[in-house]
Write a structure and sequence with these properties.
Elements (H helix, E strand, L loop, with lengths): L12 E5 L4 H12 L3 E6 L2 H13 L3 E6 L5 H15 L4 E4 L14 H27 L5 E6 L12 H24 L3 E8 L5 H8 L4 H11 L8 H12 L10 E4 L7
Parallel strand pairs: 1-2, 1-4, 2-3, 4-5, 5-6, 6-7
Helix pairs in contact: 1-8, 3-4, 4-5
Nicotinamide-adenine-dinucleotide (NAD) binds next to helix 1 and helix 6.
Length: 262
């Protein structure tokens, strides 16, 4: 973070789902470094608790809660915890997600439902139930939903994933319009990464029959010739979370090295 402005979200309370790994972990670290109190949530308690501890050890403020984003009860209990601890919420990052490959012919109904439960219903529940706490912030709250370039353009081998991420894109705009028209002062935007160097992509590469060739195909899919880094994506999320983006709502930031410009 050398050379970057500090304190861009000083004093804000941020809840980040899927924070034990990849983009969610980097977002939690960058937000804590920029002055927010972060609540990391994830299914993976061991990695999530360790991540929160590391942030605290380096001078930030972080807490971890176990949280399955597909569970309505888990959302209510995480938000109750945030309310007891802080009495408000300023930033919600709906980041938790799962990937699976498969064309329309290969994808089973069970796979379709499982991926939509996390990638689509998770953000739905988050937006729906966090609004009351976000409304307690008198200067305006921010929701950032992590979609994907696969929510904008199609990929033949990602039928369920594309559908789940496209759903997040338009959910975002609907929430943004609702909040703006109600005068809640809550913004809602989506971020659309292309292939990013995280365990999710590692798993896709490892499971491919020719991992090396597949990895270089993913790299060269972007005109900039590389995968995104978690910091590339976390920086866009940070911007949307900050007051610098106070007139930005219902919009989408594509972070893809030019992939969707072709
Ligand atoms: N890595 C990429 O190339 C890429 C590209 C575009 C979009 N995305 C999106 O970015 C987000 C983060 O992905 P990542 O690459 O960092 O993946 P990752 O696998 O590194 O991290 C995802 C995290 O989500 C958690 N998670 C999964 N299911 C959950 C559930 N039901 N409840 C709570 N937590 C759950 C996992 O335990 C994990 O810690 C996802 O929404 C993903 O779809 C990733």
């Amino acid at each position: 973070m050398s050379g970057a402005a500090a304190g861009r979200i000083e004093g804000k309370i941020a809840l980040i789902t899927g924070a034990a790994s990849g983009i969610g972990l980097a977002t939690s670290q960058i937000m804590a470094a920029q002055g927010a109190s972060v609540i990391l949530t994830d299914l993976n308690t061991e990695s999530g608790a360790r991540a929160a501890q590391t942030i605290n050890d380096s001078g930030g403020t972080a807490t971890f809660r176990n949280h399955d984003v597909t569970s309505e009860n888990d959302w209510l209990s995480v938000l109750e915890f945030v309310e007891k601890m802080h009495d408000r919420l300023d930033i919600l990052v709906n980041n938790a997600g799962v990937g699976t490959t498969g064309s329309i012919e290969e994808t089973t109904l069970q796979q379709w439902r499982a991926i939509h439960a996390v990638n689509s219903e998770g953000p739905f529940l988050g937006c729906k139930y966090a609004l009351d706490l976000l409304k307690k912030n008198k200067t305006g709250g921010s929701i950032i939903n992590v979609s994907s370039v696969a929510g904008i353009i199609g990929a033949s081998n990602l039928a369920a994933y594309c559908s789940s991420k496209a759903s997040v894109r338009l959910l975002t705009k609907s929430v943004a319009l609702h909040c703006a028209r109600k005068g809640y002062g809550i913004r809602c935007n989506s971020v659309h990464p292309s292939y990013t160097d995280t365990p999710m992509v590692d798993e896709m590469v490892d499971n491919h029959r020719t991992p090396d060739r597949y990895k270089s195909a993913l790299e060269s899919a972007s005109p900039m010739g590389r995968l995104g880094t978690v910091e590339d994506i976390a920086s866009a999320i940070l911007y949307l979370a900050s007051d610098e983006a106070k007139f930005t709502t219902g919009s989408e930031i594509v972070v893809d090295g030019g992939l969707t410009a072709t």
